[in-house]
Specification:
By secondary structure, the chain is of the alpha/beta class. The protein is built from ten helices and 13 strands. The structure holds threonylcarbamoyladenylate and magnesium ion. Magnesium ion binds next to loops.
């Protein structure tokens, strides 16, 4: 085994944090059976303690160690989509530490589809609790360098697996209730899930919608520090011109080429395909945020199902942008 993996496993066993790549975004990992280690994740991220974290597993045979009920639907979805960008929320087994579940009766589980993550999980041999490796409320990291810039010395080791292929967080499906419920859209779509399950998947919030079951579902999340506005395609030219007139440095993310060049206009051409768009999204927002832009204008996406997951992240980025405190 590579020296770096041996070091990662011994850090995890000692209750330390290790950041690692997944196919979606980089995770900030700790031994999910060790409450003190998981507490370090919350401290490093500045994240409220009542927010549950996902447990990453080496393979689906580990499900029964974490969930007290493994419904047929979960078995089916695991077979079809794992390793891959899908998190299943199931009833927790008694042994799962409360700090992992945020005190809830459920636990989020997934087998990530990234070779380095799988090597780490297999070498560790148990569950690794890992939220995205960013400060709470900020943009998820999709490269090892992003993680180092976000968390600095708070993390002992960052395993570098290059840029994350998917680029946005996993789909989260709640299978703990009477009906399957989509808690967060992602690369695995609601249509794929309902066709695999043979029943509809609801996207409606449950009765307890006010509880922070999914902090990613808080309106302000995944946000850059620079104000970000979504602009309808037909209004883009006029809105860009207005911001330039006011003397701003304007960053634009659009699926069509730049309008007339301007020294204060930074135009980023976004891919026309939702998968490629997702892959680049967070790196583009992060680059804008670190540059001189005073405003980020993003061309609104088509209201089509296949754009759902990225449209969801952009809406939250627009809502939470421009705040200076780490909420
Ligand atoms: O793609 C991903 O899911 C990445 C990579 C690292 O795996 N992880 C990630 O973790 O996005 P995080 O903590 O940033 O977001 C996980 C989401 C949170 O919104 C959390 O509330 C939700 O999963 N979650 C975890 N356990 C849950 C549970 N038992 N019930 C409801 N939501 C849960
Ligand atoms: Mg996150």
């Amino acid at each position: 085994m590579r020296a770096e993996l041996i070091q990662a496993v011994s850090l995890l066993r000692a209750g330390e944090l290790v950041a690692f790549p997944t196919e979606t975004v980089y995770g900030l990992g700790a031994d999910a059976r060790n409450p003190a280690a998981v507490a370090r994740i919350f401290a490093a991220k500045g994240r409220p303690a009542d927010h549950p974290v996902i447990v990453h597993l080496p393979d689906a045979t580990h499900l029964s160690g974490w969930a007290r009920v493994v419904p047929q639907g979960a078995v089916k979805l695991a077979r079809l989509f794992w390793p891959g960008p899908l998190t299943l929320v199931l009833r927790r087994s008694e042994s799962v530490p409360d700090i992992v579940t945020g005190g809830q009766d459920t636990v989020g589980l997934r087998v990530p589809g990234h070779p380095l993550a799988l090597e780490l999980l297999q070498a560790f041999g148990s569950g690794i609790a890992a939220p995205s490796a960013n400060r709470f409320g900020r943009i998820s990291p999709t490269t090892a360098e992003h993680v180092r810039r976000e968390l600095g010395r708070n993390v002992r080791l960052v395993l570098d697996g290059g840029p994350c292929p998917v680029g946005i967080e996993s789909t989260i499906l709640d299978l703990s209730g009477a009906v399957p419920r989509l808690l967060r859209p992602g690369a695995v779509t609601a249509a794929q899930l309902s066709s695999a399950l043979g029943e509809p998947v609801t996207t409606e919030a449950g009765a307890d919608a006010s509880a922070p079951r999914v902090p990613g579902s808080l309106a302000a999340h995944y946000a850059p520090a620079t104000p970000l506005h979504l602009v309808e395609p037909r209004e883009l030219a006029a809105v860009v011109a207005a911001w330039l007139d006011r003397g701003g440095v304007v960053a634009v993310l659009a699926r069509r080429p730049a309008l007339d060049a301007h020294p204060r206009l930074h135009w980023q051409l976004a891919p026309a395909d939702p998968g490629a768009y997702a892959h680049e999204l967070y790196a583009s927002l992060r680059a804008f945020d670190e540059g001189p832009a005073t405003v980020i204008l993003v061309e609104a996406l088509p209201r089509e199902l296949r754009w759902n997951a990225v449209a969801d992240r952009l809406a939250r980025a627009a809502c939470g942008s421009g705040e200076t405190d780490e909420t």
